[in-house]
Design a protein that fits this description.
Blueprint: H1 25-49, H2 52-59, H3 63-69, H4 73-94, H5 102-119, H6 121-133, H7 139-157, H8 165-186, H9 192-208
Helix pairs in contact: 1-2, 1-4, 1-6, 2-3, 4-6, 4-7, 5-7, 5-9, 6-8, 8-9
Length: 234
């Protein structure tokens, strides 16, 4: 049996969403079910396998309710990437990467994410395609992906509480490179070894900008709103 919040609910028009109030615990649980169902479908058949009606049935919510949470498949898959990133971030906080330099730690962090992508390549492909197709109506979801990615990189850096413009620029370049190497790997144009070399190379920007200075305990809890490009998956 499906859950119906509003029997007359209809899909909202993209680009016309108003700011939503905070979710209740029941709504958060429903959202989790939706995202988990999306990930399962994508793991089985990639981007094409994620159909809104099937997601609604699998997560046991009404189709109209699903559209109120996520106006399109692209919104849904970008939100799934953000959920995967949250899981990756939690894992990294429990078991942070080692490395003598900030560049080493960031590179190992991003390659750990690639390891997760290798285990579920169809999910990785679906999320990457959604990011490629995302237009301005998906900006809130893309921004969430970017913020989480920036937080992951800064946690690996152990960098300053208030990064400089140069440091944030380095993080953005790393994010862009990560995304580009992800696309190249998914399309068969780059091996994991090549990806590793490119990631290690770009991560040296962290040391060049001096972002790898130690910070006080608790710095890992911050999340930045300064990122620009979607880069990772859990």
């Amino acid at each position: 049996m499906t859950e119906v919040d509003n029997p007359e609910a209809v899909a909202p028009q993209p680009g016309h969403r108003s700011a939503a109030p905070p979710l209740t615990e029941r709504q958060r649980e429903r959202r989790r079910r939706i995202l988990h169902a999306t990930a399962r479908l994508a793991c089985r058949g990639g981007f094409e396998a994620v159909q809104m009606r099937e997601v609604a049935e699998s997560s046991q919510v009404a189709l109209g309710t699903l559209y109120r949470y996520f106006p399109s498949k692209v919104h849904l898959l970008v939100a799934t990437m953000q959920d995967q990133l949250e899981q990756l971030h939690a894992t990294l906080r429990r078991n942070p990467p080692g490395g003598e330099t900030a560049a080493d730690r960031v590179a190992r962090t991003l390659m750990r994410a690639f390891g997760a992508l290798q285990r579920e390549p169809r999910l990785a492909e679906a999320m990457a395609r959604a990011l490629t197709f995302a237009d301005r109506s998906v900006s809130p979801e893309v921004d969430q992906v970017s913020r989480r990615t920036t937080a992951i990189i800064l946690d690996a850096v152990g960098g300053p509480e208030n990064p400089t413009a140069a440091q944030l620029s380095a993080v953005r370049v790393i994010e862009h490179t990560w995304h580009s190497t992800l696309i190249a790997w998914l399309s068969g144009r780059a091996s994991i070894a090549q990806v590793g070399v490119d990631i290690e190379t770009v991560c040296r920007l962290i040391d060049v900008t001096g972002a790898g200075e130690p910070v006080a305990a608790g710095g890992g809890e911050r999340e930045r709103a300064h990122g620009s490009g979607p880069v990772a998956s859990g």
